[in-house]
Amino acid sequence: MPKIEEESSVDTELKEPSMYRVILHNDDYTPMDFVVDILMSMFHKSYEEAETIMWRVHEKGSAICGIYTFEIAETKVELVKMRAREMGYPLLATMEEDV
């Protein structure tokens, strides 16, 4: 049986994944120290960075916590919501595409 060699040309174009902003939103019930704790534990911010972001959330109504690929951003949003609910707080995290 003869060997058949097949040559194929596949153009593979790699492209950077879309990135998404994770945003925390202000409310009148979630304690500021809880927000700082979330920023430090889930977003790996230093105390100073976490405090700065927390004040931005408090004063402006929302702030970006980080920019991640879709799956990571989605996971962080869900983890923030779960932890807040466990503690009885209405803290809201959302995500939006980073353009």
Which features does this protein show?
elongated, single chain, alpha+beta, 21% strand, Ribosomal Protein L30, Chain: A, 99 residues, 3 helices
Write the layout of secondary structure elements.
Layout: E1 19-25, H1 32-43, H2 47-60, E2 62-69, H3 70-87, E3 92-97
Antiparallel strand pairs: 1-2, 1-3
Helix pairs in contact: 1-2
* Count of domains: 1
So what's the CATH class? Alpha Beta
CATH architecture: 2-Layer Sandwich
Q: Give the proportion of residues in helices.
A: 40-55%
The tally of helices reads: 3
The description of the largest β-sheet is:
3 strands, antiparallel
How would you sum up the global shape? elongated
Gap between N and C termini, in Å? 56 Å
CATH topology term:
Ribosomal Protein L30, Chain: A
Question: Could you say which structural class the secondary elements and strand pairing correspond to?
Answer: alpha+beta
**C-alpha Rg (nearest Å):** 21 Å
- List the strand order in the largest sheet: 2-1-3
Low-confidence stretches: none
Q: What's the total count of β strands?
A: 3
Beta-strand content bin = 15-25%
One letter per element, helices H and strands E, the order comes to EHHEHE
The average pLDDT is 94
CATH superfamily: Ribosomal protein L7/L12, C-terminal domain/Adaptor protein ClpS
Q: Describe it for me?
A:
The protein is α+β, with helices and mostly antiparallel strands and about 100 residues long. The protein has one domain (about 20-95): Ribosomal Protein L30, Chain: A (2-Layer Sandwich), CATH 3.30.1390. The chain is built from 3 helices and 3 strands. Helix 1 crosses helix 2. The radius of gyration is 21 Å and the shape is elongated.
